[in-house]
Amino acid sequence: MYNNSERRKFDPVKFDSSKSANSFEWPFRLNFYDKSPWYEVSLEDFERYALDRLRVLAEIESSFARNRSWEELKSVTARQCKDHLPLNSSSASTVDTQTERRNDHLGHFVLRLAFCRSEDLRRRFVKAETALFRVRYESDDTKERELFLQSRDFKWTEVKSEEKLQYASELKGLGIQQPEEGVPTTERLYKVRWTQVPDLVNKRRVLLKDGWAYVPSKEQLSIVLRAFEANLENALDSTARSIMRMDGDTRLTEILNHMSRGFVAGVASEYSGPATGDEIRADMVDDLAKRHFPLCMRNLHECLMRDRHLKHFGRLQYGLFLKVLGLSIDEAIAFWRKSFSSVTDDKFNKEYKYNIRHSFGLEGKRANYPAKSCQQILLTDKPGPSDCHGCPYRHFAPDNLQTSLLATYSSQGLTSTDLAEVMRTVKEGHYHVACTRVFEITHAAAGVKKGDGIGEGESVTHPNQYAAKSIEIEKAQQGDAMVIE
């Protein structure tokens, strides 16, 4: 990752969590990530901790696209961090905080390498990282946060009592009152150059005097966030200039290229087992498709029913989806044979049956292939004019997409007035967010509200995830109905 001079400078060693805990290499939960990794890392850790962080950042970007309030974003991010990127305060005596902070540190720097490659990626990375920093800042231990602020030079000066009295009348406009005449306010004020807080100047939340901004303590976070952003922007520019040195290492460039696509459709875990917990039969697929499938799979199913055929990539995308949904090998063969009704038995056995068995790991190298995630569908095997696979939100023309959405989901509550919001997210390139919003609309009758996503605010990142949640909601409704009866 580094050249020889950098290696000599940092003298990297293998990470020892017990040693670092004693030497406090990461004394604070909050981090401006000034110091590059100085320790050796395995390729597995290089990818693992970056992906963990990317899952959190992708959900943050999804929250921005879904216009969530700050409190909603903070709640969703906190849950994501608990699952993928835990980071406890120093007072957590039962947790190895140094290992947590090392993993956080490593993941951040790997993603810097992935997202420094274009201006758009840098902008989106800075925005998501700043939001993550803010979530952690607001939830941090008060004492530890104060020690962190004292450890850095934010180029602020605490305003003394004389100045507070001098500008007492102007400070009243900011809601800062004197306890009594001639006595300065006890509220802390910080004096910084106005260029450090342009957002507060724009919102008139500071007192301006001779190029200085007098910032109330309740607005201190703005100074910190602006410093974090500026620090990260400069670091990304520097990384972009030196990234060429890594291009010869194909192991790393492939990983980084994959990660830089993470904002397109989030980061999904692979599904390897039946999403519903039940096996489904071939004769159930048509009904399930109409009630529970996302648009990509619904489109494949309807093309199959109409044409009695799907091309290779369509069969692959749909076949793996059905396998993970719970269609067994025998039922899969029965389903595809019935669907390919215009094909003779001999041709079906010779040209199609082998591939079905292969996808179940019963032929060839006998690998158990997972279903394709949203990211894989979006970024691989781009469909041609006569293909049915791919993501409709990305690959359909806008007019065709709107027509398809209404034709597919109007019976489940989607109306023409909902299309403007869905199409806005499509236009912005947040295809999985559009799919998530459609899920919320079509399951509103079951109590799913805007912002709920597929559960706890999470966005759709996998077709099987969509179908599984839809089936789960229906089963819960049926169970409630039985209890009432």
Structure notes:
It is a single chain. The chain is mainly α and 485 residues long. It has helices spanning 4-10, 17-23, 43-65, 70-84, 97-115, 119-139, 142-150, 161-166, 168-172, 198-202, 220-242, 250-260, 262-265, 285-292, 295-307, 312-325, 329-339, 345-351, 353-359, 374-379, 392-395, 398-409, 419-427, 431-442, 463-484, and strands spanning 13-14, 39-40, 157-158, 189-193, 207-209, 212-216. The longest helix has 23 residues, at 43-65.
Brief summary:
This protein is mainly alpha-helical and 485 residues long.
Which helices and strands appear, and what pairs or packs with what?
Layout: H1 4-10, E1 13-14, H2 17-23, E2 39-40, H3 43-65, H4 70-84, H5 97-115, H6 119-139, H7 142-150, E3 157-158, H8 161-166, H9 168-172, E4 189-193, H10 198-202, E5 207-209, E6 212-216, H11 220-242, H12 250-260, H13 262-265, H14 285-292, H15 295-307, H16 312-325, H17 329-339, H18 345-351, H19 353-359, H20 374-379, H21 392-395, H22 398-409, H23 419-427, H24 431-442, H25 463-484
Parallel strand pairs: 1-2
Antiparallel strand pairs: 3-4, 4-6, 5-6
Name a few traits of the molecule.
mainly alpha; 485 residues; 25 helices; single chain; disordered N terminus; two-stranded parallel ribbon; 58% helix
Global structural class: mainly alpha
Low-confidence stretches: 1-15, 17-22, 271-277
Largest sheet properties: 4 strands, antiparallel
Distance between the termini: 65 Å
Rg over CA atoms: 27 Å
- The helix content, as a percent range, equals 55-70%
Subunit arrangement of the protein: single chain
